[in-house]
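hiii, so i know i said id send this last week but things got crazy w the move. better late than never?? heres the sequnce for the chain we talked about at the cafe, plus the structure i predicted for it. fair warning i was half asleep when i ran it
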Amino acid sequence: MVDSLVAIDRWFEELLFSVRTPFFLEVFNGITFFGNELTIAVIAGIVGLFLLQHSKTYRVYALGLATTLIGAGATGYALKVLVSRARPSGLIPSIIETSSSFPSGHATAAMALYGFMAYLLCVLFPTKKPIVVTSATLLIGSVGFSRLYLGVHFPSDVLAGYILGVLWILIGIAVVKRTNHKETM
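okay and structure toks below
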């Protein structure tokens, strides 16, 4: 099973390298920005401050967001240290990354932040759910694909990051629901 996964990872890496162009390197370098630590921290900080300045109902979502992001970040970091998977090698990477490859921190962070924000927006604006879910899916998918196109991750790294992000979104949502339930008692 692991050998098959590695073979698929290598095949996909070579496929993307064969279609790499300077134009798309620039495009995906711009897109990957939306999953880096600083960007995620700034956006989360702005959203968190907005939520904290409103009613108790909104503050609960700030707690859920913090739980999601801190949990996803800490778990992702621990997995990078434990697994210690090397990044794609050779001439394929277009940017230099120094941390381990598995899981993708950009994919984890993008899923955690933008996924939780999508949940929040769907709760607040249920009639806008299709556009919110579509927009979040495109953004999260683009960040993950950018990591593949730039040659700094394997598909399994990105998939693992997405799964990790989703797990922490579910935990963040559970925190929101449990806190809301306690406050209504």
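btw DSSP finds seven helices and no strands in the chain. thought thatd interest u
miss u guys!!
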